[in-house]
Amino acid sequence: MNSTITSTSHSPKEDHKPMESAHLTISDLVKVFRDGSGSETRAVDGISLDIEKGEFVTLLGPSGCGKTTTLRMIAGFEQPTGGEIRVKGKSINPVPPFERNMPMVFQSYALFPHLTIFDNIAYGLKLRKASREVIRNEVAVASQMVNLVGLEKRYPGELSGGQQQRVALARALVLKPEIILFDEPLSNLDAKLRIQTRTEIKRVQHMLGITAIYVTHDQAEALSMSDKIVVMNNGKIMQVGSPEQVYNHPADPFVADFIGNANFLESQVTAVNDTGVTVTIGGKNFVIDRGRVYPEVCVGDEVYVTVKPEAMEISQDPGDLTGRVDVNSFVGAVTEYKVEFDGQFITVIHSNTGETVTLHHMDDEVSIHLNPEYCRVYKR
Amino acid sequence: MAQNLGGSIIGREWGLRATIILVFALLGLFILYPIFSVLRMSLTPDGGFSMEVYRSIFDHARYFRSIRNSVMLGLIVATLATTIGFIMAFAIERLRIPGHHMFRSLAILPIVSPPFMFALSVILLFGRSGLITRHIFNLDVGTIYGLRGLILVQTVNLFPIAYMTLSGILRGIDPDLETCALNLGARRTHAFFTVTLPLAVPGILASWLIVFVTSMTDFGNPIIIGGDFDVLSVRAYLEFTGMGNLPRGAALAILLLTPTVLFFMLQKRIMNNRSYQTITGKAARRNMLPVPPVARIGFALFAAVLSLFVIMLYGTIIAGSFIQLWGVDWSFTWRHFAYSWDVGASTMGRTVLLALISTPITAFLGMIIAFLVVRRRFAGRHFMELLAMLSYAIPGTAIGIGYVLAFNDAPFRWSGTAFILVTAYVFRNVPIGVEGGIAALKQISSEIEESSTNLGANSSYTFRTVTLPLIRPAFFAGATFAFVRAMTAISAIIFLVSARWNHMTVLILAQTEILRLGAASVMSFALIVVVMTVIFLIMKLTGLDRSQVFGAGASQ
Questions:
Q1: In angstroms, how far is the first alpha carbon of chain B from the final one?
Q2: Can you give the C-alpha Rg of chain A in angstroms?
């Protein structure tokens, strides 16, 4: 892979020279792990990426996709097998991790259990030989920023998970870094606290104008926090783009599935013309805009038609496709249906507006209305 | 561009690189080089290479017998001690027999005792003028000196090792598995034989191997109670120092070393790939199933009888300290104390002094090696771990002979000095600290130290401010064991002591050999008191409890 994937806000013309404005540049980064028996795993398989100053970039992908390895190479915990990482145009490959000044918020928070909250936050400042006075002031500022005032004398074990998470954040922020790293920092929090903390992190990062690199497998987290999402799979970058771009215009079936939980309907192309492509699903024909179909499409191609669960309507009135409700799950704001038709299963999400909700029950006959303008077609 | 894993990062840290090189140099000089010297001596009896020494050993029934005897003793003792250890561990961990707290404490006692204390009290009880054999029952059961006596004292001495290993294993087996077996319709004994026992098999094997190795390398018991039953460790010592036949002593030490090192590595392998490990990470102890009273009573009786026997052995030593002449004149006396004070006070002082000097060095070195091995990636990392652990498996006899051969001449002319004794303690005892440190570090998320690095700390700062405070219990456990083992050492240091720097155990051995059993009792008793006092002080000063100092087997 030798093409540089850049953010869509920049022209992808210059192929080799790193963008002058880029804060952090990754080029052709490779990490190979060898285990005892000598077998190799290409955890990161030649990725390239530009990150702008002040940008909030998320590395998103399933476990084992190489996102954490990439982050650990940026932090210096892993040495790349190949490729380069540059900060402001200068290679940091030979810089040991303790000289990189890119504090990281760990998944386990990694607070020092034998030190007080104050000493935890002050740890990096002491290493930088800051005066007692400076340390006291800076720790106070950082504690205030993340709402920890009054807890300085406690030990990590005496704090709740959410508070520990904020200590980890303060410990990083107090160093006034230009780049801050996050390794799935919210995955140990409960659902409600997670949503609260992610807006908190976003707010502080934006306020201080820090460049943030954030690793997660949670698509909601990525969509809600990022300026730019980097979708990864099998050590490779699948797509880079803004949350809207990645969600609404997935580059390939993997992204469509991973980000949008799209339904994949088996289908066949029956006609192709300049503006549209006709596909049949369950004996019905749908015309899909040419721009939403892969370029080399031919009549007779076996394809997948993808459609997001919320882009369909379900009703008992006659519609495009007729099926049977396999399972219904009412989850408050929405109801999720798994509908079987023609041997395939489709997930449909129905928004429950108002207070009266019409539920379709298991084994009910229902019809699904498909909006071709939200469908995409990929080669099977 | 292929880069070595982390190589260039370590390269930038000169302090770290220097430490790694220094540790390798020390392990090489004080473990590998002495063993190499033994091997060289055994293969070059007259200067040139020759297998003559080995051939003569296998040709002479007398030497060959000592090999056979050592193996036979090891087989018997390993089997007995592991069986008893398993019964005790099962009774204490699984059945929670009444008084299990007390039984746990008793199981530790033999570990902190002088190496041949049991041999001494068994002689007092069952010897030629033994209290029980001669004076109470007036039995003529034959001599206690020899195989029977050795089996008895080594089994009592070594079953705690099996107990410690197996209680850890049994605690790691989720009781829900047994509950589940019963729930599926198994009877209790059926559940034991189909679930519990198979899960414990790797632990049983590992404990058997370690007891076998310890029995084979034991020197203190066989030299006192072995009689005509010749074993390798004693034969090697007699050839080397008694006969002055250095090549033959060295060859016997190599023959002793080969199986013990192999068995030790096998044991490590079993313990490392415990494929049956079922620890779920939940610390909470679930309710034990109710046990039929008959079983509990049976197991409790067994534990009680065993404990009474151990207590009796200790009581005998104390009694022996106050009796004029055991077997002849049973009147009370203080004269053994007075004599022991005159003869042994300065030796005791020096023994304690050298043990205390070696203790912090051993513990620090152990923690540093553990940190390097677990947390830093460098070429030869596994070799460093192997080297550090290996000295645990190398028989003291081989180390003692090796130190004599290696450090007798320039550039390392250290024989007879305190330095060589301290070095022997440090490198004989460092594996326990390394093992404890590795175990402790593996339980601590590496992210904590990584975050220290990430915030700007180099390896040395991270080690001092984060790692060491976090593995504090392992440090003090390593220190305690280092002290205990330095105080109770004999097999290696008997080659290294000098008139100026004698060791208490060697002195006690000398008293036993000239049949001053009263003085030997007093000195053994004093040694136990000193060791226990220091352990008590360490626990008080550090606030650690017994389970942290002696490992999980001793908990609560």
A1: 56
A2: 24
Is the distance from CB of A287 to CB of A273 less than 8 angstroms? no
- Six-digit token string for B23: 């540790």
Q: How near does any CA of chain A get to the CA of B366, in Å?
A: 21
Residues in CB range of A84: below 8 A, 6 or more apart: A25, A26, A27, A28, A29, A91, A93
Q: How many CB pairs under 8 A join A and B?
A: 84
Could you tell me if B37 and B395 are in contact, meaning their C-beta atoms sit under 8 angstroms apart? no
Output the six-digit token pair for B403: 């130190």
* Contact assignment for B2 to A175 by CB distance below 8 Å: no
SS3 state at A40:
strand
**Location of structure tokens 């904590």:** B448
Question: What is the dihedral sign for C-alpha A73, A79, A82, A87?
Answer: positive
Contact B455 A175 (CB under 8 A): yes
- pLDDT score of B139: 65
Amino acid present at A343 = G
Strand, coil or helix: B19: helix
Instruction: Classify A60 as helix, strand or coil.
Output: strand
Question: With DSSP H G I counted as helix, E B as strand and the rest as coil, what are the percentages for chain B, rounded to 5?
Answer: 75, 0, 25
The minimum CA-CA distance between B9 and chain A, rounded to whole Å, is: 5
Q: Tokens representing B430?
A: 């460092």
**A339 in Cβ contact with A370 (< 8 Å):** no
Chain B neighbours among A 314-353 (CB < 8 Å)? none
Query: Around Cβ B373, how many Cβ atoms within 10 Å?
Result: 22
Helix, strand counts (H, E) of chain B: 26, 2
Is some CB atom of chain B closer than 8 A to the CB atom of A41? no
Distance CA A203, CA A212 (A): 12
Q: Which of A373, A63, A67 is nearest to A249 (CA)?
A: A373
CA–CA gap between residue B380 and residue A343 (Å, rounded) = 58
Q: Cβ(A122)–Cβ(A141) under 8 Å?
A: no
Residue B2 has pLDDT above 80, yes or no: no
Which of B491, B442, B552 lies closest to B233, judged by CA?
B491
* Tally of CA atoms within 13 A in the half-sphere of B419 that contains its CB: 8
From the list B506, B546, B519, the residue with the least C-alpha distance to B112 is B546
Please answer whether residues B421 and B494 qualify as being in contact, where contact means their C-beta atoms are separated by less than 8 angstroms. no
Distance between CA atoms of residues B388 and B383, nearest Å: 8
Which CA distances in Å does B130 have to B122, B311, B316?
A: 8, 17, 11
Written as one string, the DSSP assignment of A191-237 is HHHHHHHHHHHHHHHHHHT-EEEEEES-HHHHHHH-SEEEEEETTEE
SS3 A57: strand
Structure-token pair, residue B197: 């026992």
Under a CB-based contact definition with an 8 Å cutoff, are residues B392 and B264 in contact?
A: yes
Angle, helix B100-108 to helix B293-322, in steps of 10 degrees: 40
Exposure on the CB side of residue A374, measured as CA atoms within 13 A: 15
Omega before B411 within 30 of 0, i.e. cis: yes
Task: Give every CB contact of residue B161 below 8 A, 6+ residues apart in sequence.
Answer: B81, B85, B111, B207, B210, B211, B214
ipTM at complex level: 0.77
What is the rounded CA–CA span in Å between residue A271 and residue A107? Answer: 51
Cβ–Cβ < 8 Å for A280, A288: no
Phi, then psi, of A5 in degrees rounded to 5:
-90, 125
Q: List phi, psi (to 5°) of A325.
A: -70, 120
Q: Tell me the shortest Cα–Cα distance from A216 to chain B, in angstroms.
A: 17
Residues 6 or more apart whose Cβ sits within 8 Å of residue B190: B181
Q: What averages of pLDDT result for each successive group of 10 residues across chain A (380 residues)?
A: 40 44 92 83 95 96 94 93 94 91 92 93 93 95 92 93 93 94 91 89 93 95 95 96 92 89 90 90 88 90 91 84 90 89 88 77 89 88
